[in-house]
Specification:
mainly alpha, 2 domains, globular
Length: 164
Amino acid sequence: MTKLPIQKRYYPLWWLLQGIAQLPFSILYFISDGLFFVLYFLVGYRKKVVFQNLQNAFPDKTKAEQRAIAQQFYRNLTDIILETIKLAAITPENLKERVKILNPEVIEAATTHGELVLALGGHQGNWEWAPSGGIFYLNCPIDVVYKPLSNSFFEFLSGGPERA
């Protein structure tokens, strides 16, 4: 057995997450629905911050509209958490189905002529999948700029700069 470069106290969590990564997407999204319920209704994870941000961003929206947006945010968050875990076991075919780069020839043409291309992406969809899926469309080096996580286990789990 290969020694994991993480503290032993994280081994059970590591094994659990590796098991979850093996599950099909249909089961992952079912688990995501349950995780949404736990985070939103039971734990209230960062709920004050989320609602304050929604009030600042959408002062004209009613409380009901802001609540609907918050619930959409939490559903998206739990989907992204489980999709990121799935990255540990996703097949290249599955990833290519889920990540699309439109007009890759534009990037190819620029890089072929020695130009540098800066592609920026917002937090739309799963931002963890974009660099990993981009390698299927682009025949050029891909560098990712990111802020390392403060928790060494989650930094290891995320793949850090080696993810792409």
